[in-house]
Amino acid sequence: xxxxxxxxxxxAERGWPVFMLGRSKRPIANCPACRTSTGHDPxxxxxxxxHGFYAATRDPDRIRAMIATVSTGQLAVRTGxxxxxxxxxxxxxxxxxxxxxxxxxxGTVTQTTRVLTxxxxxxxxxxxxxxxxxxxxxxxxxGLGPGIDVRGDGGYAVLPPSIHPRTGRRYQWxxxxxxxxxxxxxxxxxxxxxxxxxxxxxxxxxxPEISGVISRPxxxxxxxxxxxxxxxxxxxxxxxxxxxxxxARIVATGHLSSAQALDILTDAGRDADxxxxxxxxxxxxxxxxxxxxx
Length: 294
Hints:
By secondary structure, this protein is α+β, with helices and mostly antiparallel strands. 35% of the residues lie in helices and 12% in strands. Strands 3, 4, 5, 6, 8 and 9 form a 6-stranded mixed β-sheet that branches. Strands 1-2-7 form a 3-stranded antiparallel β-sheet.
């Protein structure tokens, strides 16, 4: 009933490239050769589990070998053009249910295949529209709104019957029919929308010197968070400090509030198995280094 291999092969049969995450929803760490190689093309790499979603495959033999290697991990689908799939991730803990109701009433979101997540959230699966749909963070104020993230091109989503690392509950399909609905024009536009920059939201005694502008703060934030997700044990505290400095610069350019930054970085630190004390110290040290205070 809860056979990862059966689920993975079924996903591949419908055209979805799949790969394995670790038990904590993070990509598997690269092997030593991939970590040290220069000019290495992750898309062409033949390693089973290196480079996160670049390891995703529809090859049944590779899937069997991958799951045998990471039998206690989580199954994931590479979203975006490779699977022709977009996933709208609803997180009730951050007002996602309220935002979803508004989107339904507005006709932005329609009925489609759904997954109940192990954390009590919801994944809505839609057909890829054939144009670039970026990943977005609802807490960044970009895309669909608070509590709703978009897993698009360059993203991935956890598949049933994976087990959520914090709650111990399984992801499960909420619909028997796995037919994906088309994205509405309103949904496509909302996924690609970037709001006007709000006023700067730092409280330090001086503004940091930032040259240029951040044209895609959502992508920059995703890149920073992905860096922490891929960090090896023993380097995560330092990595958290480094990405917090990057997030501080996003705050300084007005694309993110200090409160949002603290929330996002704290969640990322906990996902990386860091203590609340270490997380707090890393974030505050990073912001001070950028001439800012939380």
